[in-house]
């Protein structure tokens, strides 16, 4: 069954469960096919921005409807592999186009006026439906001409495409005039790493066209960035480009399908897969997943890629995603050294350089955590053998950084000194703890001597005790964690122990996270008393809260968060931060959203190439939750959970055969072998 069918089921079954979410302020609505649509009404002006990407470019559309109900569009194009000097992280070739293409078109020698946008639809492709007025025999005619815009990036080429379909709604023929519009920018040869570049834009048609009543005229605009000596594009086929984009979206949406009674959660999960998977660039250093945001491309980070998104890709079964994950770990592995100097935080500029500006952020723990979880879920022994050296090195690096309190020292954390993190922070030690556990599982699959694996298990036990002894604290009246020694203000990242199965102080931690000191309409404040929020900590906290068994509280806040992000005023993805970055749709955060369900609600914890722990949970008002077409552990399988006589009935189905069928009390962990 397709994602469209699942969303339709969720919409029928989920009326009661979604009613509790704050939908009164929702601007967008979910369509039956899984798209979201904004039906424009009097709530204008309103403007937003959304990012889309293909393997050769990214585009941020700053779009909206003004006070007169006309559509406004500013396109920001980024070409990650057209590097500018100096060849640093953010020096990608960029160009903005604020051109109003319909404004260049005339109907019977007059420009189109009084645009009224009917609706805007988004499913990874943006479609805008509107109408224009014109004058005929000195009489103004409303809705004389309809326009459908279709906006999307090419999946594999450095093209961004806009299709324009005009319809004559009048009872007589009209004459439309399209200009011979071409724009070309050329950069100086000495400004580019690869010499001069060209950015071109043009229309596919020009001239005079007679349009009969009820008939259409269509053409497209294409925007392209290339090296100056690259062969110019002559003819592109929008059917193929749009079809390629649509095929990828269908592939992502029709694997790892979340089916619950809540259509908002189902749909945001589908969109999160899209955003998480689309932002992969085909660089000279191999496939590299990039956060985006008009800044972070053709580079990989120990947090965004190694920690956040890479452990998720095996579940989606997107081979390009898996290849990008493996490639990122290979890039980090290049910096292993016998002296155990830290691996850089980021490998940049298509892999030719690195960034280490915040010094050691706990990157070794991030990489060990992500690589070991990825290798287990991927279920590929040859890949795991290759990654084992990197994992070993990172674990030893962290071990050498232990303080006299038994926790891991670092110069900063993933927020890179934006907020204090002390000499040793909770996040780094928690990731190292989980990495030790995963390494023990992975090493067993690889035949690593038991003495080494027993050492990892012992170190994990010692570290768990040290985490509770050193970081466990009463902060602002909550029996939770301090983020670092001397920290006396609540911090969002105190959620981290909950995500790795450390529940010793779960109640106080959860109470603190969802207290007015930290929780806002946009999720968690980074630090109590500030206005700054980063979605990544909110997404970790929601995952950890549900995994810890506080399902009702976690799900209540998850529904609020998802409704705001998917259907509110800035849609449809998880964002990076605010005020920094103006809530950019950075890609890896969408991977963290999906992991709320894979690791939180369903409680999947990899234990081998073909095995995992499963601790499923259901909100009290749900009768079922399914995770279908899971592509991890070398298999494709479904997980189905439903209520049955006060218990949860759990089915794991592979190749139409039941692998596991048990009735359990909620909170029970099942051992699954495929």
Task: List the SSEs and their pairings.
Blueprint: H1 3-13, H2 15-19, E1 29-30, E2 36-39, E3 46-53, E4 58-65, E5 71-83, E6 92-97, E7 106-107, E8 110-111, E9 113-122, E10 126-136, E11 139-153, E12 159-168, E13 174-178, E14 182-186, E15 197-203, E16 207-211, E17 216-227, H3 238-253, E18 257-259, H4 263-278, E19 280-283, E20 286-289, E21 300-301, H5 302-309, H6 313-316, H7 319-333, E22 346-348, E23 353-355, H8 363-378, H9 381-400, H10 426-446, H11 450-471, E24 472-475, E25 478-481, H12 496-499, H13 506-513, E26 519-520, E27 523-524, E28 533-534, H14 535-547, H15 551-567, E29 577-578, H16 588-601, E30 604-608, E31 611-614, E32 624-630, E33 637-644, E34 647-654, E35 657-664, E36 670-673
Helix pairs in contact: 1-4, 3-4, 4-15, 4-16, 5-7, 5-8, 5-16, 7-8, 7-9, 8-9, 8-10, 9-10, 10-11, 14-15, 14-16
Brief summary of the model shown:
This protein has 674 residues and is of the alpha+beta class. It is built from 16 helices and 36 strands.
């Amino acid at each position: 069954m397709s994602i469209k069918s699942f969303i339709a089921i969720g919409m029928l079954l989920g009326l009661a469960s979604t009613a509790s979410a704050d939908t009164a302020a929702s601007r967008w609505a979910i369509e039956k096919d899984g798209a979201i649509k904004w039906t424009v009404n009097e709530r204008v002006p309103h403007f937003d921005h959304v990012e889309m990407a293909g393997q050769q470019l990214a585009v941020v559309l700053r779009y909206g409807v003004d006070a007169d109900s006309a559509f406004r569009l500013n396109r920001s194009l980024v070409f990650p592999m057209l590097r500018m000097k100096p060849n640093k992280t953010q020096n990608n070739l960029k160009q903005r186009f604020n051109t109003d293409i319909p404004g260049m078109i005339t109907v019977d020698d007059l420009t189109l006026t009084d645009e009224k946008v009917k609706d805007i639809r988004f499913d990874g492709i943006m479609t805008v439906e509107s109408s224009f007025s014109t004058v005929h025999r000195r009489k103004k005619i409303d809705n004389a001409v309809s326009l459908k815009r279709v906006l999307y990036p090419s999946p594999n080429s450095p093209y961004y495409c806009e299709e324009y379909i005009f319809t004559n709604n009048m009872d007589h023929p009209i004459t439309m005039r399209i200009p011979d519009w071409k724009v070309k920018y050329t950069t100086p040869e000495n400004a580019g790493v690869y010499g001069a570049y060209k950015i071109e834009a043009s229309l596919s048609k020009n001239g005079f066209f007679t349009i009969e009543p009820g008939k259409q005229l269509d053409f497209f605009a294409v925007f392209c960035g290339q090296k100056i000596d690259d062969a110019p594009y002559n003819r592109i086929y929008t059917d193929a480009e749009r079809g390629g984009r649509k095929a990828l979206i269908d592939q992502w949406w029709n694997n790892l399908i979340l089916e619950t009674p809540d259509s908002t959660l189902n749909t945001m999960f589908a969109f999160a897969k899209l955003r998480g998977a689309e932002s992969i660039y085909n660089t000279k250093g191999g496939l590299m997943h990039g956060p985006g945001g008009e800044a972070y491309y053709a580079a990989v980070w120990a947090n965004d890629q190694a920690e956040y998104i890479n452990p998720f890709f095996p579940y989606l079964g997107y081979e390009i995603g898996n290849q990008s994950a493996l490639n990122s770990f290979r890039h980090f592995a290049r910096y292993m050294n016998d002296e155990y100097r830290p691996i850089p935080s980021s490998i940049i500029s298509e892999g030719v350089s690195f960034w280490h500006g915040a010094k050691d952020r706990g990157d070794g723990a991030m990489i060990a955590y992500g690589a070991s979880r990825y290798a287990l879920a991927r279920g590929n022994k040859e890949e795991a053998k290759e990654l084992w050296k990197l994992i070993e090195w990172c674990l030893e690096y962290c071990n050498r950084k232990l303080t006299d309190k038994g926790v891991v020292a670092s110069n900063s954390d993933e927020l890179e000194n934006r907020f204090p993190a002390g000499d040793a922070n909770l996040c780094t030690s928690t990731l190292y703890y989980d990495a030790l556990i995963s390494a023990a599982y992975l090493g067993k699959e690889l035949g690593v001597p038991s003495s080494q694996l027993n050492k990892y298990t012992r170190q994990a036990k010692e570290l768990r005790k040290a985490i509770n002894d050193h970081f466990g604290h009463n902060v602002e009246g909550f029996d939770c964690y301090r983020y670092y020694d001397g920290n006396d203000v609540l911090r969002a990242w105190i959620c981290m122990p909950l995500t790795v199965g450390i529940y010793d102080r779960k109640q106080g931690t959860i109470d603190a996270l969802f207290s007015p000191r930290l929780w806002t309409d946009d999720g968690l404040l980074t630090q109590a008393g500030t206005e700054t929020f980063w979605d990544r900590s909110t997404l970790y906290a929601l995952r950890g809260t549900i995994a810890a068994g506080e399902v009702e509280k976690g799900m209540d806040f998850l529904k609020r968060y998802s409704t705001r992000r998917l259907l509110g005023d800035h849609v449809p993805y998880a964002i990076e931060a605010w005020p920094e970055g103006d809530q950019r749709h950075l890609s890896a955060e969408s991977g963290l959203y999906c992991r709320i369900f894979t690791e939180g609600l369903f409680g999947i914890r990899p234990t081998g190439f073909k095995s995992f722990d499963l601790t499923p949970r259901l909100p009290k008002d749900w009768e079922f939750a399914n995770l279908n077409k899971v592509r991890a552990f070398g298999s494709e399988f479904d997980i189905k959970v439903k209520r049955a006589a006060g218990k949860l009935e759990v089915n794991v189905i592979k190749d139409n055969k039941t692998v596991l069928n048990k009735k359990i009390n909620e909170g029970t962990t099942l051992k699954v072998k495929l």
